[in-house]
């Protein structure tokens, strides 16, 4: 068979070479794109408040269109750049771009909280809080309009230092969210010490909530626990009406997901908002 003839190993190592080659190319090109980031952009996914039915905020998500390889998903390039110490300049670009967009929206009368994903390395960056405050000041955007999303795993990686950074951000009025909640390691007592306002329950728990009773109990428990700690709870990845009804019934405060909207360009985001307001007016 293939294995005994040695072909198995041959094919296997060729695949490794290809994957390695691609990572190498992506990293090299990502780093040069950071110098003049015309192939990067941000898209914005609405977050809907279930009590009012209003869109109260958006999550900024990075997009990279490689000149020859086409769109590269963040699930591929973010882990790569995080391993290669490119997370700090990347987050700097994301925050600058998102805050500049918020300033333009605010001028046009659109007052939204925008959340940005940050990396573990940002919590180890010297004066990260200071640099975020400087961007907000330069664009004249209030601290409370920006939210930073951080995963449990990122926080647990040198927890004391992370806590100090998060406290500094929180003291400045910048909002903090735990992202992908439930997928990392976290201790309840530690979660209680974090100065976060929002907990976002990972999509992997949400998608099967309407068909799997075990998922339903698990999410119910997560929701009541985080609400007890005084946090707002967001359900990520809501794709259907059935899932929406379930997360509403167990007390989630907000939802994000394809059921309402995919991540949108700034122009499409504004159009989406306008259509929703028209719908609300039509219903009222
Ligand atoms: P995340 O922060 O948990 O972001 C939510 C992801 O779920 C986004 O994927 C979004 O498009 C996707 N999503 C939202 N609603 C639905 C839904 O109803 N169904 C499905 N199937 N997916 C949904 P995206 O944009 O591909 O980003 C993937 C991950 O990459 C993000 O997960 C985040 O961890 C990371 N990422 C994206 N942009 C940035 C960034 O600017 N900086 C950093 N550090 N990480 C980023
Ligand atoms: Mg996120
Ligand atoms: Mg994330
Ligand atoms: Mg998430």
Account of the 3D structure:
The chain is of the alpha/beta class. The protein is 52% helix and 19% strand. The chain has 12 helices and 9 strands. The longest helix is centred in the N-terminal third of the chain and has 29 residues, at 7-35. The structure holds ligand C2E and magnesium ion (MG) (3 copies).
The 3D shape can be described as globular
Mean pLDDT: 92
- Low-confidence blocks of residues: none
- Strand arrangement, major sheet: 1-2-4-5-6-7-8-9
H/E topology pattern: HHEEEHHEHEHHEHEHHEHEH
- Terminal-residue CA separation: 70 Å
Radius of gyration: 21 Å
The ligands found in this model are: ligand C2E, magnesium ion
Strand content: 15-25%
Main pleated sheet: 8 strands, mixed, barrel
Structural class: alpha/beta
**Helix share bin:** 40-55%
**Distinct helical segment count:** 12
In total, the number of strands is 9
